[in-house]
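Summarise what follows for lecture notes:
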Amino acid sequence: MATITVFDQMKKEVGSIDLSSDVFEVEVRPEILHFVVRAQLAAKRVGTHAVKTRAYVSGGGKKPWKQKGTGHARAGSNRSPLWRGGAIIFGPQPRSYEFKVNRKVRRLALKMALSSRLLEDNLMVLNTIDMPEIKTKRFAEVAKALGLEKALIVFNEADKNLLLSARNLPGIKLLPADKLNAYDVLLYPKLVMLESAAVSVQERLK
């Protein structure tokens, strides 16, 4: 079990927290992380690309010329894929790119992602981030005090002032603990968790 320091929003030490070894000290296996991240990115693909097959190209109902005697190759339609303006052979059609990933594998990948951030000393736990008003400038000062340029901040309960203050700051993303996933953890080099969110994530993943 790892014990790390808990800071306030001005990066002053205010206590410590024990992190479960079952969640934050898991052996990192790149192939599992790669598989889960690939699945998540594939699920984001819309898959609405399409080309016209012979069924969708207008025209072509009449045979261009008779079958024999013209000296031309046989042709049944001027919308054949061989003709200019004709259909496309084996072109892309709307499809889903999703593929199944077992729940156990997704949970394991998240544990590995969290473990990698702790191992690299890129995990920070805060007791709270207090935003009395919606003010991006105020949140930018907090981010600067914490040394955050590109970071994922995980919270447990939504704070409207915090969410609205941080949404326009480039490089910073806020995510509720129940939506935490391996892709977002790996995408941001710094992981910041509010203390209540760290406890919630541990309870969910144990």
